[in-house]
Amino acid sequence: MIRLYSYFRSSAAFRVRIALNLKGVPYEVVPIHLLKGGGEQFGEQYVRTNPLSLIPALEDAGQVLFQSLAILEYLDERYPEPALLPSDPLSRAYARAVALTIACDIHPLNNLRVLRYLVRELGVSDQDKDAWYRHWVELGLEQLERVVVSSGRSGRFALGDQVTIADLAIVPQIFNARRFGCDLAKAPTLSGIADRCMQLDAFARAQPSAQPDAE
Length: 215
Ligand SMILES: N[C@@H](CCC(=O)N[C@@H](CS)C(=O)NCC(=O)O)C(=O)O
Fold this sequence. Notes:
The chain is α+β, with helices and mostly antiparallel strands. The protein is built from nine helices and four strands; from the N terminus they run βαβαββααααααα. Glutathione binds near residues 10, 103 and 113.
């Protein structure tokens, strides 16, 4: 059975949990606590699994995959239904671009290790760390909102009425933005997409509070 190294609050793992649920692929969650004891992602055992010390990693047929977007594309190729990418090349590139904007340009600035470095090494106050977090998330989502609106492609979801990898990236990012009290007034379309996605069972079952390691 597929094993997913996951942490309930990890937005990158959240993306993969949604894909597995949508595709109806059974999987076992192996919880890796990112805070306990300094972080289990740095433990010898997990570093052997994923030397990047990041969540998620997915183990299938004895192989370990990492990077959530690569994992999503792997799952889409291995379990094609329902497809997470549209069929025409332009729409595929667009869906990937939306997902990559979140995964490459928004999420990494606010990752745990970055926030920790700000506080522990650079002596930034908790208040300033939170301001950093909100600044990059609000700016990133405001810009992405403009992309999504001007593309004219959105419907119930980021690409019409088909769930794609774009939605799998949007939902966890909006989820975390709300948790950290970001102002999403300038991202109403993205917020609406996230709300409609969360009405789907596959998304709801993937959310942090539904995880076996939820606190
Ligand atoms: N680009 C990676 C990002 C993975 C990532 O940053 N995971 C976070 C949780 S969402 C993590 O493991 N953080 C641990 C840390 O910062 O020490 C992906 O998409 O898989």
